[in-house]
Write a structure and sequence with these properties.
mainly alpha, two-stranded antiparallel sheet, globular, single chain
């Protein structure tokens, strides 16, 4: 078993049990449910990333790379959704109400459909010794824009909540913000910034 597979299994199991535990504490709580959904999409994204670089999956590399982007869109949306639900007393929460929610969901699923059924987001795939590389299509920037917007909305709502919270709640928000900020920096750097500069994404899987 190589290091990457071992790392993937460990991280996925930790994420799964953490999300499942939070959900089990109160299955009807929308905050718990939204966190559990977010965790599931993160795990799907990680698995798709890993499989997309396997030599044995070369004939299906285009599909797996498209699934990586699609699951990334879902986890980006679920991240912002969780943050907005967690900070539901803040002004950002209006995004989850009609007509804004319908517009965002329409955009989300439109991007997923375009990703899978056209070459406008993923033009083609290149193969290297470290794995596969996406050649962006003409609309690839929309995916990057969606990722970035989700990060801004999610982290922005947490900042707003932090300023108005006290005690244990303030500490909870602080931990969430720091954890999500580090994750966002890593994801945006390896999946957007580095590929935009070099044209390759060998570190995306990490």
């Amino acid at each position: 078993m190589n290091f990457h597979l071992f790392f993937l299994i460990i991280i996925s199991l930790i994420n799964f049990f953490l999300g499942f535990l939070v959900w089990q504490v109160d299955k009807k709580n929308i905050i718990n449910k939204s966190f559990w959904v977010f965790i599931c999409f993160v795990i799907l994204w990680n698995i798709a990333l890993y499989i997309s670089d396997l030599p044995s999956q070369a004939p299906y590399a285009l599909f797996w790379n498209k699934l990586t982007l699609a699951s990334g869109l879902l986890f980006a949306y679920s991240f912002a959704h969780f943050c907005l639900v967690f900070t539901r007393k803040e002004g950002f929460f209006i995004i989850l109400k009609p007509p804004f929610s319908f517009i965002i969901l329409f955009l989300l699923f439109s991007l997923i459909l375009i990703t899978f059924f056209t070459d406008l987001i993923v033009a083609r795939i290149e193969f290297f010794e470290w794995g596969t590389n996406i050649i962006p299509g003409n609309l690839y920037f929309l995916v990057g824009g969606f990722y970035l917007s989700a990060a801004i909305v999610g982290l922005g709502s947490l900042i707003s909540k932090y300023k108005k919270s006290t005690g244990i709640e303030r500490i909870q928000v602080q931990y969430l913000f720091l954890g999500f900020l580090l994750a966002a920096i890593g994801i945006l750097t390896t999946n957007l910034i580095h590929p935009a500069i070099t044209g390759r994404n060998p570190y995306a899987k990490y």
